[in-house]
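All the exercises in this workshop are built on plain-text protein records. A record pairs a protein's sequence with a compact description of its fold. Backbone structure tokens are a discrete shorthand for how the chain folds in space. Once this layout is familiar, the rest of the handout is easier to follow. As an example, a complete record with its sequence and its structure tokens follows.
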Amino acid sequence: MSHKAFQADFIYLGNQEKISNGIIELNANGEITHLGENTSSSDIKTKKLNGFLCPGFINTHCHLELSHLQHKVSEGTKLHGFVQDLQKVRKADEATISQAIASAELSM
């Protein structure tokens, strides 16, 4: 991933503050290196977006129906590898699935 920048009408900071005409610059690892008003004159390619950017939001969703597969499917295999692993281990009885769902709900 090369350096990138995203400019938006507003950047929401999560503490009721927002930056008008804001910009977020990312390094090659996707880490935020600059967050603020769009005063950048760098050579970084900037994608302009309408609306809000919320850089503090993270993806925290959970597929409870797949809880019984925890630690049975390899990580980092992309979709193709995930589907192959899933086909090998997807069979489970209803009691096992229900118990895994209940356990996952309690852990959140």
Remarks:
- Strands lie at 4-12, 18-26, 32-37, 46-53.
